[in-house]
Amino acid sequence: MSKRPYTVLLIVPTGIGAAIGGYAGDALPVARAIAQIADCLITHPNVLNGAQLYWNLPNALYVEGYGLDQFAAGNWGLRPVHQNRVGLVLDRGIEPELRQRQLQAADATRATLGLNLTEYVITDTPLGVSLKTAVSGATWGTIQQPDSLLRAVEQLIQKAGAEAIAVVARFPDDLGSEALQNYRHGQGVDPLAGAEAVISHLVVREFQIPCAHAPALSPLPLDPALSPRAAAEELGYTFLPCVLVGLSRAPQFILGSNSNFHPEMGDIWASQVDAVVVPATACGGSAVMSLSQTKACIVAVNENTTTMQVLPKTLKIPAVQVHSYLEAIGFLVAHRAGISSAALKPATITLHQVDR
To answer: Is residue 352 included in any domain, yes or no?
Structure first.
């Protein structure tokens, strides 16, 4: 009798300056390693997106953050697909030359990678993205014209048959900001990440369809001191390729409460998650809180520091705390094998009788 698939959820929250995963796809090596020992890896765009760099992980599911929260809460399931038709929304605020660069990137993924894209839509008014920073240092943002975005997405779904949505919004250039300079040098918080999450959350919440965002920005001047962790975002004019690749195979969301819902073999629900790997100081997110109430084992990684200070013990979440992702992977190997991690230590504690 075969065992059921071993399923791991890897979370690195967006916009909180994670030492690993707070930059341009620098958590992708962690995802690649965990994918080798998990039958199914569930993670989100912040982990897998590396601008023009990406890596095909056949057993990884690319799930937007709001959808991930709904999945973890048991409200939505995930249905793996072979291919999605990806629709592209371009912000009317993008200048013509920069817009053409985005379209060339989209055409390149069609010609070189064979992705299935629909026609694109330009929003009927500029979206007006602005960037904010919280007292904690975490980044967030606002969009002045959310209705324009939703109209464009609806048009792609209804008229072009889009099954997933890529959004490219014009973000403000802030070349002289201290935050940007720190980020380029491998310090501080990604100034764009929080606002990107607002955009994708809105689309997924309204349409229950996979979505991810790529910012449109003017190319930055050459910086010889650029950190390798930030370098993936400076290889060209666009961050779009990794988003289109991810969305091309992103699982569809299924709502079990829907009267039209018909379960299929391969559908994945929160009850099937075996382990959740998360930075130790970022355990206050909705997905971790929801899954801490299930049989899933929470693995908190101390080495991946963030601007947050929300530890599992503060929230009374039972968690296995490990120093590094290397140690986390060792724990997952034992967990999958059904081996108590205590058995891998030099001393074994004697059994004690339960108190009456």
So the answer is: no
